[in-house]
Amino acid sequence: MRQNFVAGNWKMNLTLPEAQALTTEIVQELREEQPSQRPQVVICPPFPLLMGVGQLLGEGDNPALGAQNFHQKDSGAYTGEVSAKQLQSVGCDYVILGHSERRQHFREDDSLLAEKLKTALTAGLKPIFCVGESLETREADETFDFIGQQLAAGLFHLSQEEFGKVVIAYEPIWAIGTGRTASTQQAQEVHAFIRAQVAAAYDEATAANTTILYGGSCNAQNARELFSQPDVDGGLIGGASLKAADFVAIIKSF
Ligand code: PGA
């Protein structure tokens, strides 16, 4: 379902007390608004903090809890790993997949991501699937080819029904954590391209129903302009999700 949507990716930040203080502040500030009137909000803490944060989110599915990663197998001898079912059992509804930091530092490639997508969906988790080009790719004028390839290899093997549970995030690598945001025009043109690719792979109705987020130095100052673009449905927020006032201002930017 296409909806206004803001997800906070806390990455490897915060201790449990810090995370609980931040969550309490976010929940309090959102309390004035009816859950039905706000965008879908998802908070993605590191694994050990999931339950402690989830307990503070209250009843209902907005804000929802999300994870940042999991292992592709259901269970077994994979010391140190976490399964999708385990995440689901501690209250996660969403999981981030294909983030450029996982692709780059942990060598997650398209075939692994395709496998992980299936595992997530089987466990009942909704994937937030990230795509995005490097600066080198953008400067070589290969952004659209590159994103098209990431979508085709990582995502479009899903059935139409499975695909309907996926949220896509466009995160240009050169904009992540750099303070350098894509211009509204750069974001809009890639989002429109992604939506057209979805229409070609499935159909127009599926494309019109797909939630596509922008990520990369999105903050309380630039969110409103980015979210006003016709194909930008919200944001995947890193640094600015670690401060309650900034994150809530972004949530209120529609
Ligand atoms: P940023 O991170 O907002 O800190 O740039 C976004 C992300 O990596 O999801």
Which small-molecule ligands are present, each listed once?
Answer: 2-phosphoglycolic acid
CATH fourth-tier homologous superfamily: Aldolase class I
Q: How many H/I helical runs?
A: 12
The radius of gyration is: 17 Å
Q: Could you list the spans in which at least 5 consecutive residues all have pLDDT below 50? A: none
Under the CATH scheme, which architecture would be assigned? Alpha-Beta Barrel
What features would you describe in this structure?
The protein is α/β, with parallel strands linked by helices and 254 residues long. The protein has one domain (5-251): Aldolase class I (TIM Barrel, Alpha-Beta Barrel), CATH 3.20.20. It contains twelve helices and eight strands. The chain has helices at 16-30, 50-54, 84-89, 100-105, 110-122, 135-139, 143-154, 160-163, 184-201, 204-208, 223-227, 244-251, and strands at residues 5-9, 40-44, 64-67, 92-97, 126-131, 167-170, 212-215, 234-237. An eight-stranded parallel barrel has the order 1-2-3-4-5-6-7-8, surrounded by four helices. It is globular, with a radius of gyration of 17 Å. The two termini are 17 Å apart. The model has no long low-confidence stretch (mean pLDDT 96). The protein binds 2-phosphoglycolic acid. 2-phosphoglycolic acid (PGA) is lined by residues 9, 171, 176-177, 215-218, 236-240.
Descriptive keywords:
254 residues; 8 strands; TIM Barrel; 12 helices; alpha/beta; binds 2-phosphoglycolic acid; 8-stranded parallel beta barrel
SSE layout and pairings?
Layout: E1 5-9, H1 16-30, E2 40-44, H2 50-54, E3 64-67, H3 84-89, E4 92-97, H4 100-105, H5 110-122, E5 126-131, H6 135-139, H7 143-154, H8 160-163, E6 167-170, H9 184-201, H10 204-208, E7 212-215, H11 223-227, E8 234-237, H12 244-251
Parallel strand pairs: 1-2, 1-8, 2-3, 3-4, 4-5, 5-6, 6-7, 7-8
Helix pairs in contact: 1-12, 7-9
The structure holds 2-phosphoglycolic acid.
2-phosphoglycolic acid binds next to strand 8.
